[in-house]
Amino acid sequence: MAKTINKKNTVKLDFNIEYAPAPESKSSASIKSKYDLFINGKFEKPLSKKYFDTINPATEEKISTVADANNADVDKAVKAAKNAYQKTWSKMPAKERAKYIYRIARMIQERARELAIIETMDGGKPIRESRDIDIPVAANHFFYYAGWADKLSYAYPNKKIEPIGVAGQIIPWNFPLLMAAWKIAPALATGNTVVLKPAETTPLTALKLAEIIQESDLPPGVVNIITGAGATGAALVNHSDVNKIAFTGSTDVGKIIQRAVAGTNKKITLELGGKAANIIFDDAPLDQAVEGIINGIFFNQGHVCCAGSRLFVQESVYKTVLQKLKDRLETLIVGDPLDKNTDIGAINSKQQMDNIHKYLKIGEKEGAEMYQTHCVLPKKGFFIPPTLFTNVAQSSRIAQEEIFGPVLTIQTFRTDDEVIEKANNTPFGLSAGVWTDKGAKIFNLTTKMRAGVVWANTYNKFDPTSPFGGYKESGFGREGGLHGLSAYLK
Amino acid sequence: MSRLEVLKTYKIYIGGQFPRTESGRYYTPLNKAGNPLANVCLSSRKDFREAVVAARNAFGSWSSRAAFNRGQILYRIAEMLEGRKAQFIDELILQGATNAQATTEVHTAIDRLIYYAGWCDKFQQLFGTINPVASSHFNFSVPEPTGVVSIIAPQSNSLLGLVSVIAPVIAGGNTCIVLASETKPLCAVTFAEVLNSSDVPGGVVNILTGKPNELVKYFADHMDVNAIIYCENDATHHKLIQEKAALNVKRVYFYDKVNWQSADAENPYFILDTQEIKTTWHPIENIGGAKAGY
Predict the structure, then answer these.
(1) Within an 8 Å CB–CB cutoff, is residue A461 touching chain B?
(2) Which residue of B has its CA nearest to A476?
(3) In the prediction, which pLDDT does B8 show?
(4) pLDDT tens-digit profile of A146-172?
(5) Same-domain pairing of A123 and A212
(6) Distances (CA, A) of A414 to B19, B106, B147
(7) Is the ipTM beyond the 0.90 threshold?
(8) Which of A301, B114, B144, B257 is the most exposed, fewest CB within 10 Å of its CB?
């Protein structure tokens, strides 16, 4: 299926490239038809006796069937983690602990290609992203934290370093393996044991990780991976032997979890939603800024909590930036996530697609102007073309609420003060972007943004050494870097 | 004829002013012998809300002051407290302390302020990092104040406890609203007078008197408060605070196991509790490599 760049409504492009299909082969990915729960080092049939399907959102075809853990299954997994914590993991010399984590990192690297293909099939993200970002950064995360295991006393001077115990970890569907790595690696390095629940729409790479962990000879029970939906997560949050909850997901669910652990001694870290401002000043290198805007909002179909979903353009360059943005939008290739040329893959689930459509309607109803690219969407699967909204009011729901899709709202500003005020006028505070060639202006903006990660003249960059996490209602605690250790220490 | 003593009116401290509670209510804490200490303002939810407005208004300029300047101001508070030692010792004795206990408490409180004054421009170097990312970017993380913090101060150690919870919060650039010890509120009001004469801008510290049972709910559920600190071991309050805090994902800290007189009661990790870590990225141009890495 060749794709042609559609030139309707755009300035003239002096080239017209047809891309031949370049699909990644599925043959190097081995996926079982059925997955059980990974508890105490073994794949165990669920006590619930229930399974659910996981589908490929780009084709709507079933890929596999995974177990649906109930309360009894959660209890079994937590008991295994507690037992492993008490008998094995907390007693093991830190140097040995480190070597297990290094080993897992290496095995992820060895199987990177397979993991990338499965990630793309299960979640819909372009293979280019899973291959170049998700999987390598996940492996690097294990590699980075492995080295901390025997150096913890240097991280927090004059403080007693103690693990918390059993960590219950609940992760989202937007970066399935990467989020598993962000959760598991620091927890293990600091001497905790883990029960991890991946999202119900993207369980497969976590289960492949379970296979890797089994192969790595990590002592049984140190990492347990159980699949299921919200009820499974709730059972994990409410289990009395869980000492720590780490959650990445929506702010709504984060608040429910924060309330649920009230009155217990459970430690908690939350990495929640965002509505990041991406700010373009008139002195910015505009072509680079446009690439940054595109990467900021359309990376991973906009299913990114730190996505630059609110664009603020200085009035004097608004028309230029908007035109460049529309031109660039028309060149984005939307379609088969397994195709190496694809820029924007499938929306993760039908439910999420419906949610995005709901916001598109709200935006139009609120009087904003919608612009979508003219790409031809595949007939099957869940797809939404890249979307811009102009004429957006600060109070508009599409500018205030997290859409979690390829939808960008565009507002303008005149002065630095005005844009700082507008950018910070949100209950969220996860990330922000600033584009200008003036160093002094960069630091004025980056220090005044009430957000945990600020990208200046770049966007959506991640690294194991770089702490990530929010201000305000975007959650608390950090993942990555030295600061990520404290989430798993008493 | 002996001179009639002038009694002090104990008021609350909001936005650098000393109003009475808008509610017009008062309560009368008693000393050990059962005699009234004073008529003290029984602050209301509305007083608290006004204090939050004052704290939020003060946050921008306080957090953007030079760390060195905040250090000087904390040191100034200690100086002023030293100068009014006798008054605090008298009040502590009125509230039931022995002379020796009162003297130790005031001295420790002064020293604790000096301790945190010194941290104002140092904790950033301890808790900030430069992160060696694998891509061509300069990347660093720094602590920044969480924002407006509501504090229910310790019930015992009515001066030392109060100072010990306020100092790390404002040293880090936050502003706060503090509910003083219910049964021993005298020193808290007098401490407000010290703050008021110590170059601490109005609104940075706001001090209310009243009953935790009545106010803890509002300290925990206000949508413009970013963090809450609570110092007692009361399981009902703990649960209530954590539940209400979830409304806007407040950071919650319980300091119920701290012995405020011990050396463990002062360290920079108390400052870190009301800090957020901000990470900033910027590309590094690889000149000659033709790969700008944007």
Answers:
(1) yes
(2) B251
(3) 87
(4) 999 999 999 999 999 999 999 999 999
(5) yes
(6) 41, 53, 27
(7) yes
(8) B257
